[in-house]
Amino acid sequence: MDKKTIAGFLPEDLIREFKIFSQPGYRVGQLLCWIYKKHILDFSLMTDLPEDLRFNLNNFMQPVSLSLRKESVSADKTVKYVFETGTGELIESVFIPLQKRATVCVSTQVGCSFGCIFCASGLNGLKRNLSAGEIVSQLVCIQNKHPLNPITNVVFMGMGEPLSNYEQTLKAVRILNNPECAGLGARKITISTCGLPDKILQLSKEKIQIELSISLHSADDALRDKLMPVNKIYPIEQLIMCAKKYTEITQRIITFEYVLISGINAAKHDALKLAKLLAPLRCKVNLIPFNPVQGLDFLPVSLSQVNIFKSILENKRINVTVRRQRGVDVQSACGQLVRG
Ligand code: SF4
Questions:
Q1: What 3-state DSSP class applies to 69?
Q2: With CB atoms 3.0 to 4.6 Å apart as the test, which of 53, 74, 157, 263 could cross-link to 78 if both were Cys?
Q3: What is the pTM for the complete model shown?
Q4: Residue 261 has pLDDT above 70, yes or no
């Protein structure tokens, strides 16, 4: 019999599961405290749980559903983890420590079907969606490796398109946000999407104040069609209208991600077109200097190209940040995660 994964349950659902063990509801709180607060994943070490419960947990449940297969530590202390799922696929997640913060980047699918041409995750297509338990397990396993370094932020920017695995992604968000589970503030959780208007509108009605990032990468439909085939289905105008609606409903600012690729979308006219497109929106732009990906011929931009692009946007009163490159040497930077 397959064991149920505790990381995939909200406390109220786990209380229902515990009825078969004839245990009072407060045992769930004790169990979750061991997993999420004390970072202990071995039932035999959970000493305030009765022995028969620990025996049953061992037989019928597992804290997480992933096994660690490989970890690669970058010179900047970013760590890329390769996990094996219960059905034998490999997925990747990244731990990014930064002074008082520690961010984990999680995957939501095995591979990706959207085929953005600058991204390694889509190179082999989509194999399957991950369950909420598999998504949350990534954070639990990584926190277990860094017990003294509390994870403060989670970004859904690893392999896969989170909003095309909507139900499981949202369930994972609610588990991460729940005070008895990971207890992360909603504003510390970011979902990144390639731009699926229906799902963005659905998300706007969830009444959860998470951060939303939309990968834009070009303000020109012809170019965006080539970079991100999803644009042929949902062109820029439709995406921007939907982004406007999202900000009206949620009163939250959207971040537009823009990967800068030399000779493709990083020229002055690209910046001017982007500024014009985003001027009517309450938003922020996050510029991401392209990270080299094996098998892809694109060239990274120079620092001066990044600065020129940034100052053009700033002159048009667009709020801009530049993402620091982390973990490039272990292929864990943005767009470098590959399906194993
Ligand atoms: S950028 Fe996102 S949506 Fe596009 S292929 Fe990569 S993982 Fe998929």
A1: strand
A2: 74
A3: 0.94
A4: yes
